[in-house]
Amino acid sequence: MTTSRAATEEYPKVRRIRFRFGEPEPMRHYLVEDNIVLSHLVALLSAVFPPGEESFIRSVRRFADSVTDPVLKQRVAAFIGQESVHGQEHRRLNQKLIDMGYPFVRLFTFGRASFRQRAIERIEKMSPGYAHLAMTAAAEHYTATLAERVLGSDEIQAIPADAEGRHLLNWHAMEELEHKSVAFDVYRAAGGPEWIRIGVMAAAYVFTIPVVTAGVVLSILTDPRGWRPIRLLRQTHYVFRGPLLRGLMADLRKYMRPGFHPDDIDTTALLVHWQQELFGAEGGLVDHLK
Ligand SMILES: [Fe+2]
Ligand SMILES: [Fe+2]
Questions:
Q1: Do 87 and 23 meet the contact criterion of CB atoms below 8 Å apart?
Q2: Residues 267-271: contacts with CB within 8 Å, 24+ apart?
Q3: Which residue pairs, CB below 8 angstroms and at least 24 apart, start in 80-83?
Q4: How many whole angstroms from 227 Cα to the centroid of ligand 1?
Q5: SS3 category, 269
Q6: In angstroms, what is the span from residue 57 Cα to ligand 2's centroid?
Q7: For 162, which of 30, 31, 203, 290 could close a Cys bridge (C-beta 3.0–4.6 Å)?
Q8: pLDDT of the chain along its 290 residues, tens only?
Q9: Which residues, by Cβ under 5 Å, contact ligand 2, an ion?
């Protein structure tokens, strides 16, 4: 393990926040202005975050007894708090998206006692705890890698989009950087084997983009306004060649090095910049805090 314990030695903050979707002006159908593909990608990600993040929380709780270090205990509590608020705000956005004509989002929107929720929990219980937690650690690294791109790229920040949707994305990305190594450290504290950690990321490395691409295609199929073949081809080309995905696979491969730790990638300066930008004295989202 090398650099930047400073970023994680402090406990991440749990911010109680409330976004004002559709205020003062109603949201436009395409949150990313005129971009069908990016809008459906954002909607799909927003749809899967709440059930995904709840599963991350359960995976960490399975190893609560292995966490004896008081600092890590506090970081775990903050991780759970942050992911809970993410789920809560994404659920609110998802309801808006369903109302606005994104029916695919509904597929991932279900209550705690629903059949789908019970099925997910049953599958989790059948899977070994290490695999479940390694999945969380890999997903957290994947998310943090994307978050670093979203927050670090002027080109991405300059894409015209719904203002409140962008705020949500930046806030979520920033908190993902704040807690990026918590699940990983729980995995280490629990004695999780390196081969499972690396193997799970190898699977995520191969399957995530094809699965997400299929999801975006299905989502667009449910949206007749988006059936514009030439625009879709041009926008798909932009997504795959643009700043979000360009070089992503090379970045993700770093995680598969034995002995790797997420803090080996130093995101402290970027994080401090955005903490100021959003929640400093003049921060753009201070008025959103409850
Ligand atoms: Fe999150
Ligand atoms: Fe996270």
A1: no
A2: 267/4, 267/7, 267/144, 267/148, 267/177, 267/180, 268/4, 268/6, 268/7, 270/148, 270/151, 270/152, 270/177, 271/7, 271/174, 271/177, 271/178
A3: 81/14, 82/12, 82/14, 82/15, 82/175, 82/178, 82/179, 83/53, 83/54, 83/56, 83/57, 83/179
A4: 31
A5: helix
A6: 9
A7: 31
A8: 433 444 445 789 999 999 999 988 899 999 999 899 999 999 999 999 999 999 999 999 999 999 999 999 999 999 999 999 999 999 999 999 999 999 999 999 998 889 999 999 999 999 999 999 999 999 999 999 999 999 999 999 999 999 999 999 999 999 999 999 999 999 999 999 999 999 999 999 999 999 999 999 999 999 999 999 999 999 999 999 999 999 999 999 999 999 999 999 999 999 999 999 999 999 999 999 99
A9: 140, 176
Q: How far is the CA of 282 from the centre of ligand 1 (A)?
A: 24
Cα of 185 vs centre of ligand 2, distance in Å, is: 13
Amino acid at 107: L
Instruction: Compute the distance from residue 119 Cα to the ligand 2 centre, in Å.
Output: 22
